[in-house]
Structure to design on (680 residues):
């Protein structure tokens, strides 16, 4: 469509006014379509409005606002997800697995509040990715994941692409500056369609909507995120500067007024009515457009929230009710053996496919041979399969009454089904492992694990490509990845020049990831990404870690004898020592990655007084430290700068008396951005 179709006013003011009008109108229709699901205009009319705004913004870029509806998808990739502090801990919820536990919860609430009937709000518990949205003077300023509850990852550019997230809060609401919490999720139907497309394109399917959501939000390219069918429900007003609220439902209604997408909720007097409702809802939940993993029951009175408080993990005024897991029976067609990264043999039941809470289930892990014996699981048996929340499907038991004599007992092989080497139990272990470290199944998974996003984060190194690399003999160890050339990749189907170059770039970039990712990537048994970080922080480089003794390791917090033994024996292995040597020859960094920042504040001392708008004290001090400066608490002749926020204290007067340079927040921010010390 050409821009001629729209009138571009010559008069700046007119253009500005029209742009404001358009933004308002588009926002209104966004809300109708994406939040309320009640569109009032056709897609065509909506596109016209958006197009007109785009044309005007092109002509008058000075009037583009950050929260303009055209600013959803940034063109820049996210370099790194920064950690940010939440406005208060993001707690999780205590769980009740039956009605008895709910009644006990009700008793505790009554005891801690008043002994009368309590009003409860019941909401679906969405199974997605928790997120905190911070709006400042109406505009979406920041979106962060839950992380460890105190600090999460800044995923603002990705969240901005979700159309149900308003970039600006509606003027109908009094809320201007606030933090909201909610859950990003992918509706079931959209998830299925997306997966089908992925399979057609030869890409790996996501396991479930929740994984798809979490994976998408960790993507560094907002353009990709924008293509994924994500949605959101907001369920809490966690911080607000404007307005007082007495009940949770008042906050929900006000959030709706602000243009946020709030799920349906119900209010009940007393726990008995809540339970009746939960019972009715049990049937409904399978037919919902999205997956829920229970219901949340919250005390409505906000004064009660304060009075009841919270433990370190969860509030005492809310609880999540988990429906009993869905179970179904089906036939075990056969039992297959999977060989893991560390050679572990895992028996897997291959089932006649069944639908279980929204997904198709065709396999269930049987864990190990002891488990098979304990449950007396036989090929041909009818088994009761259960899927509980995020856990992979399990065989609860087999129905022995249904046996007709044709069932066969299963024997664990004593040979690896992939390479034919011996599969042995070591010591008292119940697990059999393939003893051949060169077993293709192990090699493939080790290489794939090295490219994992929590390890070396190598884009494009998925299962299919790794399989081909190993089958063609192009990679037998992770070190071989660093010797791959463009011409090697040419021999692989589906690898075009562009994807090959991207892969090689990503492999080259991985060299700089640093020690903790290397340690995790090596795939040492019992060393997950958290333990890898603990080890990296303690030892700082690979040589120190390799020479650590069992007892030295055990002295570290969080490292028990099992991990310590595993680490020691991993590095005793000659093959592993050679592997490390080869990685070092390829300049793979094996020391702790220290962020390098221009130390332009070296030796400078700062004092803060008053409240800053954009930084907490900790954040501001952290910034100073990052660039080599120091934040101190008292003004003295050694102080170089005093940073002044709102309502400053006596430190300001003292600084003025001493003639110390004073910075307002804006100058402070500019200094950090430009990395230049302002003129005094
Ligand atoms: S309220 C302090 N309400 O479940 C209580 N949480 O296990 C904050 N969730 O971290 C949570 N739907 O990510 C609440 N209607 C709902 C929810 C919900 C999903 C998630 C949320 C939270 C987790 C707690």
């Amino acid at each position: 469509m050409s821009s001629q179709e729209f009138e571009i006013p010559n008069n700046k003011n007119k253009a500005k006014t029209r742009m404001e009008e358009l933004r308002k109108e588009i926002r209104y229709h966004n809300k109708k379509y994406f939040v309320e699901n009640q569109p009032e205009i056709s897609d065509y009319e909506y596109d016209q409005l958006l197009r007109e705004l785009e044309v005007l913004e092109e002509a008058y870029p000075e009037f583009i606002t950050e929260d303009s509806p055209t600013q959803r998808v940034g063109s820049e990739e996210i370099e790194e997800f920064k950690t940010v502090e939440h406005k208060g801990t993001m707690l999780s919820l205590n769980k009740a697995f039956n009605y008895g536990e709910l009644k006990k919860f009700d008793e505790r609430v009554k005891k801690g509040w008043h002994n009368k009937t309590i009003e409860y709000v019941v909401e679906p518990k969405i199974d997605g990715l928790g997120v905190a949205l911070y709006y400042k003077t109406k505009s979406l300023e920041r979106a962060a994941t839950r992380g460890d509850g105190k600090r999460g990852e800044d995923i603002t550019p990705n969240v901005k692409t979700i159309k149900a997230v308003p970039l600006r809060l509606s003027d109908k609401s009094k809320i201007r500056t606030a933090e909201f919490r909610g859950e990003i999720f992918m509706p079931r139907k959209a998830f299925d369609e997306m997966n089908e497309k992925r399979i057609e394109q030869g890409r790996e399917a996501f396991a479930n909507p929740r994984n798809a959501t979490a994976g998408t939000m960790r993507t560094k390219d907002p353009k990709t995120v924008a293509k994924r069918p994500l949605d959101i429900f907001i369920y809490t007003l966690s911080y607000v500067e404007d307005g007082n609220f007495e009940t949770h439902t008042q906050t929900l209604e006000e959030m709706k007024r602000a243009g946020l997408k709030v799920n349906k909720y119900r209010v009940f007097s007393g726990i008995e009515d809540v339970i009746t409702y939960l019972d009715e809802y049990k049937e409904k939940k399978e037919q919902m457009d999205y997956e829920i993993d229970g219901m949340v029951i919250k005390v409505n009175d906000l004064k009660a929230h304060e009075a009841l408080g919270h433990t370190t993990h969860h509030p005492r005024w809310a609880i999540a009710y988990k429906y009993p897991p869905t179970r179904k029976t089906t036939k075990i067609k056969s039992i297959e053996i999977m060989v893991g990264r560390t050679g572990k043999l895992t028996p897997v039941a291959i089932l006649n496919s069944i639908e279980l809470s929204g997904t198709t289930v065709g396999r269930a892990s049987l864990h190990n041979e002891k488990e098979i014996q304990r449950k007396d699981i036989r090929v041909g048996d009818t088994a009761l399969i259960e899927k509980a929340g995020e856990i992979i499907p399990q065989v609860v038991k087999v129905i022995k009454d249904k046996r007709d004599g044709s069932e066969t007992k299963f024997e664990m092989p004593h040979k690896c089904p992939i390479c034919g080497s011996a599969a042995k139990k070591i010591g008292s272990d119940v697990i059999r492992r393939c003893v051949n470290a060169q077993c293709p199944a192990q090699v493939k998974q080790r290489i794939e694990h090295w490219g994992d996003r929590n390890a070396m984060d190598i884009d494009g190194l998925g299962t299919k490509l790794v399989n081909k690399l190993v089958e063609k003999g192009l990679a037998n160890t992770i070190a071989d990845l660093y010797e791959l050339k463009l011409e090697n990749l040419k021999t692989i189907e589906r690898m075009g020049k562009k994807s090959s170059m991207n892969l090689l770039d990503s492999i080259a970039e991985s060299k700089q990831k640093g020690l903790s990712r290397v340690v995790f990537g090596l795939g040492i048994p019992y060393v997950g990404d958290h333990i890898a970080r603990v080890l990296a922080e303690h030892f700082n480089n690979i040589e120190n870690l390799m020479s650590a003794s069992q007892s030295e390791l055990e002295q570290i917090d969080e490292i028990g004898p099992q991990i310590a033994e595993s680490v020691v024996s991993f590095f005793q292995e000659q093959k592993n020592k050679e592997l490390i040597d080869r990685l070092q020859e390829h300049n793979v960094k094996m020391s702790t990655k220290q962020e390098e920042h221009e130390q332009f504040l070296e030796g400078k001392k700062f004092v803060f007084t008053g409240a800053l708008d954009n930084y907490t004290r900790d954040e501001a001090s952290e910034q100073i430290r990052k660039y080599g400066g120091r934040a101190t608490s008292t003004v003295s002749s050694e102080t170089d700068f005093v940073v002044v926020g709102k309502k400053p204290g006596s430190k300001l007067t003292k600084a003025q008396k001493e003639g110390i340079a004073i910075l307002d927040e804006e100058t402070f921010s500019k200094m950090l951005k430009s990395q230049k010390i302002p003129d005094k």
About this structure: The domain at 3-71 is CATH 1.10.287.610 (Helix Hairpins). The chain has 24 helices and 24 strands. The longest strand covers residues 326-339. The chain has five domains: 3-71, 95-322, 327-409, 421-594, 605-674.
